[in-house]
Amino acid sequence: MQIRKKNKFFRRKNEPEFSFGLSKLKLDDKSQIAVIGGGPAGSFFSYFLLNIASRVDLELDVDIFESRDFSAVAPAGCNMCGGIISENQVQHMAAEGINLPPVVIQRGIESYAVHMDVGEVKIETPLQEKRIAAVHRGAGPRDMKEIKWRSFDDFLQGLARDKGANVIRGRVKEISWINERPWIKTADGFQKDYDLLVVATGVNSSTSNLFQEKGYCPPKTTKAFICEYYMENKMIEDCLGNSMHAFLLNQPRVEFAAFIPKGDYTTVCMLGKEIDKELVESFLENPEVKGFMPPDLDLKQKSCQCYPRINIKGSKKPFSDRVIFIGDCGVSRLYKDGIGAAFRTAKAAATTVIFRGISADDFKKIYWPICQKIDRDNKIGKMIFFGVSQIKKFRFARRAILRMVIKEQKKAGARRRMSMALWDMLTGSAPYSEVLLHMLHPFFLGRLFWSMACEIWPFRRRALRRENP
Ligand SMILES: Cc1cc2nc3c(=O)[nH]c(=O)nc-3n(C[C@H](O)[C@H](O)[C@H](O)COP(=O)(O)OP(=O)(O)OC[C@H]3O[C@@H](n4cnc5c(N)ncnc54)[C@H](O)[C@@H]3O)c2cc1C
Description:
The structure is a single chain. About 40% of the residues lie in helices and about 20% in strands. The protein contains 14 helices and 21 strands. The strands form five sheets. A seven-stranded mixed beta sheet has the order 6-5-15-16-17-14-18, with helices on one face. The structure holds flavin-adenine dinucleotide (FAD). Flavin-adenine dinucleotide binds next to helix 2, strand 2 and helix 8.
């Protein structure tokens, strides 16, 4: 507390709070850091930490504990995800010198096809570039015959290893505090105390229970669904091409359902409120879905399936002295771009740790505002998803949206307001605040209301159908 007052007292006007030497807890040369979880958040953190440390001449020892083997097929190597790396995220990684090699990208997504009961439309990537990547998080589904691609998580872990991180295969099952320093023990008996504990365990393991006595409140989650279908490359080319196919159907509790082509497989991903078997079956039985997939593909014959949990509201305080929670087990983006959120929280945590310190106060000043920004954006996202779920209930509104997008996509050089809003919402490429700004633009609202009015007004509706059968 005293340090905080001193800091404020000595800080000159306009001088950033971000400064060296003010924390009561700091890392030194040879400090020991444990990262529990070697998914995207854990690997990004280790990569950034060691990168920045080497620039300021700080030598750190980083141990990453990971129970999965990302070079293995089936659940043993999979982190259960749609595997879409948004265009924004591809750019952010490139800016940090992380370029996804072709062996990781199973398909470059060029467009989104939106399917509704009233028709379908393809939305091309706004900049006509192939920048969205579809990846597998593990080596592949259960029945994978030949491993042709490298897992995304394995690639990221390789980057951390190249920077000097030590990856320890094993599950951390005990955490304790010795002289206020974190101490951990793995299932196979390895034990050690550390200066800093970075928790990147996601929301699909019970590891967070180990921190409850430290006052950690885990994020709110809901059940999602994901499955894989084996389809020969030719079948994927003919049926899905290089497009992700999103279904905007009037199905309660489903906020997002999509088919994502990858290598020899197609991933089906459903997000919403507590997705269960019944909901999945009714989605796969839907005439729009059945009509879209090849008739000889049995939608009941899945190569792999699971119901992972997804973060829908961040942890209230993802830090304490010497402990920080990043990625899904801290704060993530609502329904979209979880990998992007893992990247941002990991980078913010690494920067805080090196330039500020490792006390709860340091994390509160530098790391927490970044988490709060993501959390505020998620609140806007919730409003948008609520609005869309209401609009989806009305056939005339669905038709109006479809017509707007069809018209925009036909006109080269036109301002594609509805297409852009749908693109950003479906891909997670832009913050929800930006999507809302698009939607509140007077031209957007004017065109939407006019389109809806045309759908309701019978004479105009007939004329529209003649124009666009
Ligand atoms: C159905 C679904 C679809 C999704 N689709 C997308 C998408 O298309 N694009 C996108 O960007 N995001 C998507 N997400 C979100 C994305 O998967 C997560 O945001 C992202 O994986 C978070 O990374 P993480 O490193 O925080 O956690 P995780 O990826 O969950 O990694 C946590 C790691 O910690 C390890 N671990 C846990 N406990 C221990 C322990 N005690 N000891 C050792 N290791 C441990 C686990 O094995 C795991 O490897 C989706 C999520 C779901 C559920």
